[in-house]
Automatic annotation (TrEMBL):
InterPro entries: CoaB-like_sf. This is Phosphopantothenate-cysteine ligase-like protein. It comes from Schizothecium vesticola. It comes from the Eukaryota. Gene3D superfamilies: CoaB-like. One of its GO terms (biological process) is coenzyme A biosynthetic process. SUPFAM superfamilies: CoaB-like. Keywords: Ligase. GO terms for molecular function: ligase activity.
Length: 381
């Protein structure tokens, strides 16, 4: 007897399976529904106006060690890149959805927070019991205030917070999907410092991890499970050690490019500390995820230079000019460099210049071309 011919079932898509598993296993942040409602209204408003909209992600993502989180792992990012970029995007005519780590730097208020000064140092007593800006700070504050008011009053800026890595991924997925009506006018600018490792929920303690075994007998008596994440090394008493065993966070950039936001332009950042691998890693990420631009930066020089890595073109370094040099280009002291700067001999720059002031116009130029190409292709079809 002949075997029946099996019906043609497509092979399972491993990226989709990993996505499904991750988002089912890791609970969404409690405000996700509230945030998606705000994001939908904001996106639809700007999509209807035909305005470009950028999702800027910013700040570090925490890795909780306990479900009722007392302790977590964090990273260095204060959100400077994201908050500063958001201001330049607004200046370039974008609406900005700013998805940031709670309490990290925010556009506009960043000029007066997290600095060595307290914001009260910018103020003085004015006439009739009023409070006004100090003379030295007034002009700049007025400028920042006007830009901030304009962004708010024209509904150009929506600010949404996240805390943990799983909050971030849930928010990113939902917002990216909501950006569909923008088509190519949607830009995703992923500057958040995303953790590569996490504790999966099935290995995460519900309660605060104990540093002694004082409660073990109570737990044993009540037959409650005792959380166990300790190394069994006999050299150090078991009760004094905490061994943290982290899984890799699944890479969702491919899902983002192919599924969540297939028409938007996607810009990711690549952070390294070793200059000899930066460009290679950026190119690798681009090849692997097939998105549109990777901006590489080194921890030690990130405020002075970045490298643009995009498909089919040579790497492009963008640097702040040395003080007094005026023109910002790929040149430092007349020497064209296509290698990273030496962090020990960074040039004295103009303190008023920010590298995001060079990055955003360059990204916008690429985005404009991307939109044009998309529209041309659509007309042909
Ligand atoms: C960056 O590389 C950002 O530029 C910084 C900004 C985090 C260095 P600050 O907040 O720092 O201004 O102090 N962000 C992306 C780093 C990242 O996590 N990339 C991931 C990856 O390379 C995900 S796309 O795999």
């Amino acid at each position: 007897m002949m075997d029946s011919i099996p019906s043609e079932t497509p092979p399972p898509n491993l990226d989709e399976l990993a996505e499904d598993h991750y988002f089912k296993a890791n609970p969404p942040p409690k405000d996700l529904a509230k945030h998606t409602k705000l994001a939908r209204e904001f996106i639809d408003f700007h999509a209807a106006a035909g305005r470009p909209l950028v999702l800027v992600t910013s700040g570090g993502t925490t890795v909780p060690l306990e479900k009722q989180t007392v302790r977590f792992i964090d990273n260095f990012s204060a959100g400077t890149r994201g908050a500063t970029s958001a201001e330049y995007f607004l200046e370039a005519g974008y609406a900005v959805l700013f998805l940031h780590r709670q309490f990290s730097l925010l556009p506009f208020s960043r000029h007066y927070s997290h600095s060595t000064d307290c914001f009260l140092d910018f103020l003085k007593e004015g006439p009739n019991g009023s409070v006004v800006a100090r003379d030295d700070d007034a002009a700049k504050m007025l400028d920042v205030l006007r830009k901030y008011r304009h962004a708010r009053e024209s509904n150009r800026l929506l600010v949404l917070p996240f805390v943990s890595i799983s909050d971030y991924l849930h928010e990113l997925r939902s917002i990216a999907q909501l950006m569909t009506p923008l088509g190519p006018r949607g830009l995703l600018y992923l500057a958040a410092a995303v953790s590569d490792f996490f504790v999966p929920p099935d290995r995460m303690s519900e309660h605060k991890i104990q540093s002694t075994n004082a409660v073990d007998p109570i737990k044993a008596a009540t037959t409650e499970e005792v959380f166990d994440n300790f190394d069994s090394s006999p050299a150090v008493p078991r009760s004094k050690r905490l061994v943290v065993d982290l899984d890799p966070v699944p890479k969702f950039l491919k899902n983002l490019v192919e599924g969540w936001s297939p028409e938007g332009m996607i810009v990711s950042f690549k952070l390294e500390t070793d200059p000899s691998i930066l460009v290679h890693k950026a190119r690798y990420s681009l090849d692997r995820y097939q998105h549109h631009l990777v901006i590489g930066n080194l921890l030690s020089t990130r405020k002075w230079e970045v490298v643009f890595v995009s498909p089919g073109v040579a790497d492009r370094w963008i640097r702040l000019p040395a003080a007094g040099k005026g023109e910002a280009d790929e040149r430092i002291d007349g020497v064209i460099k296509d290698e990273p700067l030496d962090p020990r001999t960074l040039p004295e720059g103009d303190p008023e210049m920010e590298i995001e002031g060079l990055i955003i116009p360059a990204v916008k130029e690429m985005h404009d071309k991307y939109i044009e190409k998309f529209v041309r292709r659509q007309k042909k079809e």
